[in-house]
Design goal:
CATH class of the largest domain: Alpha Beta
Structural class: alpha/beta
Radius of gyration: 21 Å
Order of helices and strands: EHEEEHEEEEEHEHEHEHEEEEEEEH
Strand content: 25-35%
Bound molecules: NADPH dihydro-nicotinamide-adenine-dinucleotide phosphate
Number of domains: 2
CATH superfamily of the largest domain: FAD/NAD(P)-binding domain
Number of helices: 7
Helix content: 10-25%
CATH architecture of the largest domain: 3-Layer(bba) Sandwich
Largest sheet: 7 strands, mixed
Number of strands: 19
Distance between the termini: 25 Å
């Protein structure tokens, strides 16, 4: 069967992918969007989103992604619930293959495959994150719900330090669990954490269990891995900040990335090292990681793709 040919192929269905789709559709690029394995992306496992401008009363994450999708469909985006499993960016057109074995050729490709928060792997962790039961991987998104309460932050890197500092301005007490006797975070972030009165750093400390009652976090059992002593911390929020993993593995043979796998884009653009391939959202951003910044870079990618296709005389 001959491969299908499209002008603009978008991979991923978070805020970046759908925003790229809205712009590309309205520019008449007739985009085809492959949702990937988790349609809607990370916002599908969030509850209330209160910091996305325009939703003045807040919005549930899954509802927001439905709205994004409906807006992309309104302008004619062809949305397909399949996963791209392989790409070949060696020449024009670029080639991709779906999990169903379909081959698609594209004049331009927008990568918006996002990143996934790493979890500890505790039995009830992801369930409590999805249900809004008190587990989160994003303090900026969810910290407000723990105003005046006690929370745990797990991790010793810059993200954990930033999350602990952010939460310390909202919560009564922040317990930071660091699994070694030192933090990986930059010295300045460590100093800020250690200088903050209501952040209590627990060194050499791991999480044994998240305690819950009626589907809500009520505490955490922690283990000191030097002394083997166990204790319970009374908290209502459990923030996991042990890093994110960009979902960029299938592009690694073609696209320049940093050592973690974040795609490197050229300054002030969404351009990658490959002509006609653009990147947006968390797949190329390990600093801001917000829905609104992802949407912004999705817009940039669609505008860059439109210019590229125009310059090549394709559209
Ligand atoms: P990092 O990989 O730097 O740190 C992860 C932290 O989580 C480490 O302290 C690690 O411990 C700990 N950890 C990992 N797995 C577990 C586990 N299973 N149980 C307990 N603890 C665990 O990730 P970050 O997200 O913090 O940072 C990613 C990158 O982004 C870094 O380069 C960072 O500098 C950068 N960044 C920069 C910011 C800024 O400049 N403002 C803000 C946020 C991030 P261990 O050290 O023992 O491995």
């Amino acid at each position: 069967m001959a491969a299908e040919h499209v002008h603009c192929l978008i991979i991923g269905s978070g805020p970046a992918g759908y925003t790229a789709a809205i712009y590309a559709s309205r520019a008449n690029l007739k985009p085809v969007l492959y949702t990937g394995p988790e349609p809607g992306g990370q916002l599908m496992i969030t509850t209330d989103v209160e910091n996305y401008p325009g939703y003045k009363d807040g919005i549930m994450g899954p509802q927001m992604m439905d709205d994004f999708k409906a807006q992309a469909e309104r302008f004619g985006t062809d949305i397909r619930y399949e996963v791209i499993t392989k790409v070949d960016f060696s020449g024009n057109p670029h080639k991709v293959w779906t999990d169903a074995g379909t081959e698609v050729h594209a004049d331009s490709v927008i990568i918006s495959t996002g990143a996934s928060a790493k979890w500890l792997g505790l039995e009830n962790e992801e369930r409590l994150a999805t249900s809004g039961g008190g587990v989160s991987a994003c303090a900026v998104c969810d910290g407000f719900f723990y105003k005046g309460q006690n929370v745990v932050v797990v991790g010793g890197g810059d993200t954990a330090a930033e999350e602990a500092l952010y939460l310390s301005n909202i919560c009564t007490n922040v317990h930071m669990l660091v699994r070694r006797d030192e933090m990986r975070a930059s010295k300045i972030m460590q100093q800020r954490v250690l200088n903050k009165e209501n952040i209590n750093v627990h060194w050499n400390t791991e999480t044994k269990a998240i305690l819950e009652e009626d589907g809500k976090v009520t505490g955490v059992t922690v283990l000191n891995n030097k002394t083997q002593a166990e204790k319970n911390l009374d908290v209502t929020g459990f923030f996991v900040a042990i890093g994110h993993k960009p979902n960029t593995g299938i592009f690694k043979d073609w696209i320049d990335m940093d050592e973690v796998g974040y795609i490197i884009t050229k300054a002030d653009s969404s351009k990658t090292n490959v002509g006609g391939v653009f990147a947006s959202g968390d797949a190329q951003d390990n600093v801001y990681r917000q829905a609104v910044t992802a949407a912004g870079t999705g817009c940039m990618a669609a505008l860059d793709a439109e210019r590229y296709l125009g310059e090549k005389g394709i559209v």
